[in-house]
Amino acid sequence: MKSAVIVFPGSNCDRDVAVALARISGSKPAMVWHGDKTIPKVDLIVLPGGFSYGDYLRSGAMAAHSPVMTEVAARAKRGVPVLGICNGFQILTEAGLLPGALMRNAGLHFVCRDVALKVESTESMFTRRYSQGQIVRIPVAHADGNYRADAKTLDRLEGKGLVALRYCGSDGTVSEKDSPNGSARNIAGIFNDKRTVMGLMPHPERVIEPLLGGSDGRPFFEGIAEALAA
Amino acid sequence: MKARVHITLKQGVLDPQGKAIANALHALGFPAVAGVRQGKYLELDLGNADKATAEKDVRTMCERLLANTVIEDYAVEVLT
Lengths: 230, 80
Fold this sequence. Notes:
The complex is a heterodimer.
Chain A: E1 3-7, H1 14-25, E2 30-33, E3 44-47, H2 67-77, E4 82-85, H3 87-94, E5 101-103, E6 111-119, E7 135-142, E8 146-148, H4 151-159, E9 163-168, E10 187-191, E11 197-200, H5 218-227
Parallel strand pairs in A: 1-2, 1-3, 3-4, 4-11
Antiparallel strand pairs in A: 5-8, 6-7, 6-9, 9-10, 10-11
Helix pairs in contact in A: 1-5
Chain B: E1 2-9, H1 16-27, E2 39-45, H2 51-66, E3 72-79
Antiparallel strand pairs in B: 1-2, 1-3
């Protein structure tokens, strides 16, 4: 599997996700600078976490118009898988590759801690190695993770099974108090219609080894590597 | 020519920052403040464009970058 990680000024999880991809897929990703207009021929494009452009204007707003994003959008349209983690999710919504928007956390605080998540759909290359309804523990670290979309869009996402992950309690119950950011319907991650583009606020790349405090993020990359194995 | 752009959260979209500002105002002794909605103000220097073109361009800028119309409304005022 060949992958590319897009590096924006202010990205800070680019190397973490590169390590996760290299260790689990066995192939080192190409690091592509945001000012580049071309991306090597790859099976997966990753928009990493961080604070691209210092979150100027809105998180992800400036990065969504970076030169490289024209090519990311063109590849996504052709069905090349694109994964956006945290700031990458914000960039995908700002670029219109995923619906909705990520607003300031309802509690206003930057939230940096492990959260429990419920896997709502395993019908994707990203979530195929989890089981339906599985509860996983993955950290979040963001100030703008409060997912918003109009009721029609939320109904459509739920109706088509495009909600990938929801914030939940440790017993798997999903209620507002279990959301670290006030997200609509506790949404933590979504797919596009073809399930080839995924955005999520939690950081699976931070929990790929017990030494890092957990390995619940590992199946995420194993699933991708398995699905895209050449 | 200058343009003034106000960007505010749409009605019905929760504004946690506005709420925190209202709470701070209450703490400062202004209990009469029933609510605060905060937003952004941008001033664009547009050179010598004509007014109609300037207004049209600034609206496009709002749609494409300055505002996120999923959650925000914008108002444009062009000053000659």
